[in-house]
């Protein structure tokens, strides 16, 4: 059963993005894409009128992982590659809070690659943002899983001899119900995309391109702003899906033909060879969330979230009646 | 001939042939007849075909362990007699299919009484009687084998009927009739044997009949699951692994309690999902076994550093590596107390019997939340998979402790968003080491969590003074825990205060050793037993006192290197002079405990290696 209704805990907080700065200043390198993403997250939370104390912001390990230290929310800096399990566990046990997860490309597609796949098929109602700069910055620029074969940023002693993964196609194939790409310094687009992702019911994923000014000299900020020559003359590197007349939104998920056709198109779009960086929503479909499926299958969870089911009285005596747990063993 | 008050019965067969359900039927029938039972299950890491067996000890009194001799061996195929016939005691009995088993070819005592059952013929008769094709009734072979044993023991057919009714309920209730008819036929066939009436090991009828509905026949995995339900566990994560999966499947079958059982993509995900859930205020556990426990190390360290109340059940099996996946071993103790890099407080406990499985599974959540540490519960495979009759768990004494949680932050005006986003000193330095925690959603309770060393608000720091303060704060929780956790949940001395020999053990060894104490007492020996249940923090003072008072000490463990003996020496500096180990992957038997005591007391053997059982 799909419930379209959103239940984000919103209120008119009158907070501004600067209110969501923590007492710690970021220690990222000057020009790092992480700044753009942090700002966009803070702005999105404010614009969505989310109560920051009801937001759990989980991050992985690496430069990106530190983001949770700099935003004034419940920030949880987890383990390398494990941000998704943490986020999923938090959301399933206690669905009252908004769960936002973020991490780097090495964290999410490398050491956490297995979790990345499986988070898709669960469709738990969380948003996952991956900072994609093709390198492991904090350990001095080793290749991440998104670095193309043959490329050699200055931090690599030899050209890279492994192929890159395609995070968007992988996400669509894994069952993510919202898949988008954005760019760290396209503030407007990134904020809009984060808002759209957080408004999506189900697991939403944004692959955010970003420069690493220290280790990735192949794709610095200038790379993203320069024009690219094409048959139609000079065009900006950054393009938008909506300008191409593409929509990856499934209007009716119960229509299998539409669903399959859009999915095939979305994967094709994700693989479209181009020297452009194409931002936008590649795929969006409304499917039952993990919580919907739990409710469909377990009557006890229809009324209450797991965390809300009482198990003791005021005197702290446990109140759970074991009769049905005992039934098969009684003699 | 006098009837017996104790017996040991065995059934075996290829995996997938119904050995387990046969044993359950037998145990239920014996329980229905008022006896107390203890069933040991041995199986291979295999789905179908390899040999598995179930041994059930039956007694007039409460029993906690198995014994080695077999009085009746029930078989319905050809392999079990070949493998186990030599274990049958003189004048014991073999129930077998004469078409498949030739007793003269077996290595077996000549005095063993033979009870050939023409299974095919019995099934044909049954088929005629029920007007059904015989091919469809092959499954009742097991029931015939079980019922034949019950008849031999002198148990009323009605007990078998009750057992069938207890086993087949709901949609399966229609199976009672055919199985009961099969059992009845088995009784009729057995009645024709001359040897039936002078069988040496017939059981005396129970004189102290327990009241119906006051006992449970269950295994340790279910006892742990029930303890978790009682404790209000609302989320359990796992990755499929033997033998931990039994508890998870049990819990998944009880969704009426509102527990979400989540089969994660891997072991690492399951521990970290538990971490994520634990910090939201839910009661959460993850269950695993050896190899998976290894993979959880980093996640457990995170829980330690962030003072998250994550509960980890490790169902121990034979190691290292894949080891003996379906066999018993107490090989994870030292790993558990040292798991994770760096120093952080954790609680490591191990239940010793069904009652402790229930109680520890309840208490572990209290400890996790009160001391804000990961709690590791080590359960032996021999407990998880053994079946026992027990009294319904006492529950009156149980209390829930949610620890120090701040639901409303003092001085925060909740209508002012700017105050609501105030940060909170989640890791405040306190004397007890315990810092009151806020949960996400609490206005003015904002804080940061990180596996890095952190300030009281959770900001990353590498300042030496703060590092020291935080390490010390966390470590103090161990001291607090040791002071507060009741002594009997840490360790307990069973048997006489003054003894010539003190046996030390833990986990599933408890039952077998306590059962042996009774025999030793009958033999006029003063032996007591120090049962250890809490290993981290280690109760140094209490254990030191007991060991110093003991005249002679022997430690018995199911691992290769006497891990508890090492831990005791590490923590107390005391060496235990006599050591016994068993690392065959099979649980200790009462006979082995008696054997160990004799070898220590009479032969002065410093190291005893035990190896009974198949």
What would you say this structure looks like, in words?
The complex is a heterodimer of chains A (331) and B (614). Chain A is an alpha/beta fold. Chain A has a single domain, classed as Thiamin diphosphate (ThDP)-binding fold, Pyr/PP domains (Rossmann fold). In chain A, 32% of the residues lie in helices and 17% in strands. In chain A, α1 packs across α7, α4 (105-111) packs across α5 and α6 (167-174) runs antiparallel to α9. The two termini of chain A are 41 Å apart. The relative contact order of chain A is 0.13. The model of chain A has no long low-confidence stretch (mean pLDDT 95). Chain B has 614 residues and is of the alpha/beta class. Chain B folds into four domains: 6-207, 3-Layer(aba) Sandwich (Pyruvate-ferredoxin Oxidoreductase, domain 3), CATH 3.40.920; 219-391, Thiamin diphosphate (ThDP)-binding fold, Pyr/PP domains (Rossmann fold, 3-Layer(aba) Sandwich); 417-484, no CATH class; 490-610, Rossmann fold, CATH 3.40.50. In chain B, β21, α21 and β22 (607-610) form a beta-alpha-beta unit. The longest helix of chain B is centred in the last third of the chain and has 21 residues, at 464-484. Chain B is globular and about 90 Å long. The model of chain B has no long low-confidence stretch (mean pLDDT 96). β2 (74-77) of chain A pairs parallel with β15 of chain B, so a sheet runs across the interface.
Q: Which strand order do you get reading across the main beta sheet of chain A?
A: 2-1-3-4-8-7-12-11
Relative helix content of chain A: 25-40%
Shape of chain A: globular
Indicate the CATH class of chain A: Alpha Beta
- Strand composition percent of chain B: 15-25%
Radius of gyration of chain A equals: 21 Å
The number of domains of chain B? 4
Number of domains of chain A: 1
Give the H and E element order of chain A.
Answer: HEHEHEHHEEEHEHEHEEEHEHHH
Portion in beta strands of chain A = 15-25%
Number of strands of chain A: 12
CATH architecture field of chain A? 3-Layer(aba) Sandwich
First-last Cα distance of chain A = 41 Å
Q: Mean of residue pLDDT of chain B?
A: 96
Total of DSSP H or I helical runs spanning 4+ residues of chain B: 21
The helix/strand class of chain A is alpha/beta
**CATH topology tier name of chain A:** Rossmann fold
């Amino acid at each position: 059963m799909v419930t379209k209704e959103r239940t984000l805990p919103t209120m008119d907080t009158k907070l501004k993005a600067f209110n969501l700065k923590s007492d710690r200043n970021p220690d990222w390198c000057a020009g790092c894409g992480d700044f753009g993403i942090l700002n966009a997250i803070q702005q999105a939370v404010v614009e969505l009128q989310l109560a920051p104390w009801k937001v759990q912001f989980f991050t992985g390990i690496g430069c990106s992982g530190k983001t949770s230290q700099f935003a004034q929310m419940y920030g949880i800096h987890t383990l390398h590659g494990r941000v998704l399990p943490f986020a999923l566990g938090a959301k399933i046990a206690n669905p009252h809070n908004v769960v936002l997860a973020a991490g780097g490309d090495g964290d999410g597609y490398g050491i956490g690659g297995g979790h990345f796949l499986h988070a898709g098929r669960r469709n738990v109602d969380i948003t996952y943002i991956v900072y994609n700069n093709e390198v492991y910055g904090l350990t001095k620029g080793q290749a991440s899983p998104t670095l193309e074969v043959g490329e050699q940023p200055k931090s690599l002693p030899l050209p890279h001899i492994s192929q890159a993964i395609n995070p968007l196609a992988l996400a669509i194939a894994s069952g993510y119900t919202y898949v988008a790409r954005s760019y760290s310094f396209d503030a407007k687009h990134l904020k809009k995309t984060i808002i759209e992702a957080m408004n999506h019911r189900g697991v939403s994923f944004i692959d955010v391109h970003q420069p690493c000014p220290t280790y990735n000299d192949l794709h610095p900020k200038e790379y993203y702003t320069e024009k690219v020559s094409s048959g139609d003359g000079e065009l900006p590197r950054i393009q938008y899906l909506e300008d191409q007349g593409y929509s990856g939104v499934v209007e009716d998920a119960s229509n299998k033909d539409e669903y399959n056709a859009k999915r095939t198109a979305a994967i094709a779009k994700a693989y479209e060879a181009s020297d452009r960086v194409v931002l936008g929503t590649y795929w969006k479909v409304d499917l039952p969330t993990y919580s919907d499926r739990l409710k469909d299958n377990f009557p006890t969870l229809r009324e209450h979230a797991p965390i809300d089911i009482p198990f003791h009285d005021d005197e702290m005596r446990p109140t759970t009646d074991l009769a049905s747990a005992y039934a098969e063993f009684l003699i | 001939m006098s009837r017996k008050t104790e017996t040991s019965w065995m059934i075996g067969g290829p995996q997938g042939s119904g050995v387990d359900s046969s044993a359950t039927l037998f145990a239920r029938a014996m329980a229905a007849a008022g006896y107390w039972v203890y069933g040991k299950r041995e199986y291979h890491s295999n789905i179908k075909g390899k040999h598995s067996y179930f041994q059930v000890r039956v007694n007039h009194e409460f029993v906690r362990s198995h014994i080695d001799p077999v009085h009746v061996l029930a078989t319905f195929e050809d392999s079990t007699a070949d493998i186990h016939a030599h274990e049958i005691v003189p004048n014991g009995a073999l129930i077998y299919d004469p078409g498949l088993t030739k007793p003269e070819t077996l290595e077996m005592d000549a005095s063993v009484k033979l009870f050939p059952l023409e299974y095919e013929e019995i099934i044909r008769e049954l088929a005629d009687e029920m007007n059904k094709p015989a091919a469809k009734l092959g499954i009742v072979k097991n029931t015939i084998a079980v019922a034949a044993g019950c008849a031999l023991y002198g148990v009323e057919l009605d007990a078998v009927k009750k057992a069938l009714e207890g086993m087949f309920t709901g949609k399966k209730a229609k199976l009672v009739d055919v199985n009961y008819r099969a059992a009845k036929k088995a009784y009729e066939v057995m009645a024709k044997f001359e040897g039936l009436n002078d069988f040496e090991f017939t059981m005396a009828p129970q004189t102290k009949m327990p009241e119906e509905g006051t006992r449970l026949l269950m295994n340790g995995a279910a006892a742990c699951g029930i303890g978790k339900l009682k404790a209000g566990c609302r989320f359990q994560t796992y990755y499929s692994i033997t033998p931990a999966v039994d508890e998870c499947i049990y819990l998944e079958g009880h969704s009426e309690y509102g527990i979400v059982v989540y089969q994660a993509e891997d072991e690492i995900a399951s521990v970290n999902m538990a971490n994520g859930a634990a910090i939201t205020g839910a009661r959460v556990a993850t269950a695993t076994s050896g190899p998976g426990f290894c993979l959880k190390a980093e996640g457990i360290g995170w829980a330690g550093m962030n003072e998250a109340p994550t509960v980890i059940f490790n169902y121990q099996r034979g190691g290292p590596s894949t080891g003996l996946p379906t066999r018993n071993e107490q090989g994870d103790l030292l790993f558990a107390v040292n798991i994770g890099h760096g120093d952080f407080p954790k609680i490591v406990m191990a239940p010793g019997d069904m009652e402790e499985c229930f109680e520890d599974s309840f208490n572990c959540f209290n400890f996790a939340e009160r001391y804000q540490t990961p709690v590791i519960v080590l359960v032996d495979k021999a407990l998880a998979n053994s079946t026992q009759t027990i009294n319904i768990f006492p529950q009156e004494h149980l209390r829930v402790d949610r620890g120090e949680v701040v639901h409303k932050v003092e001085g925060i005006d909740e209508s002012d968003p700017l105050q609501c986003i105030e940060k909170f000193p989640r890791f405040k330095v306190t004397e007890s080491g315990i810092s009151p925690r806020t949960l996400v959603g609490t206005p003015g309770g904002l804080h940061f969590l990180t596996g890095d060393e952190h300030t009281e608000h959770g900001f990353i720091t590498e300042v030496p003074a703060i590092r020291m303060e935080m390490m010390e704060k966390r470590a103090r929780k161990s001291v607090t825990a040791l002071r507060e956790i009741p002594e009997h949940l840490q360790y307990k001395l069973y048997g006489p205060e003054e003894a010539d020999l003190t046996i030390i053990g833990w986990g599933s060894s408890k039952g077998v050793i306590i059962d042996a104490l009774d025999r030793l007492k009958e033999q006029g020996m003063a032996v007591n037993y120090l049962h250890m249940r809490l290993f981290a923090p280690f109760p140094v003072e209490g254990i030191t006192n007991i060991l110093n008072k003991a005249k002679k000490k022997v430690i018995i463990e199911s691992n290769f290197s006497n891990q508890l003996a090492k831990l005791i020496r590490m923590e107390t500096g005391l060496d235990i002079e006599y050591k016994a180990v068993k690392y065959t992957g099979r649980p200790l038997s009462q006979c082995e405990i008696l054997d160990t005591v004799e070898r220590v007391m009479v032969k002065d053997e410093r190291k005893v290696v035990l190896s009974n059982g198949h």
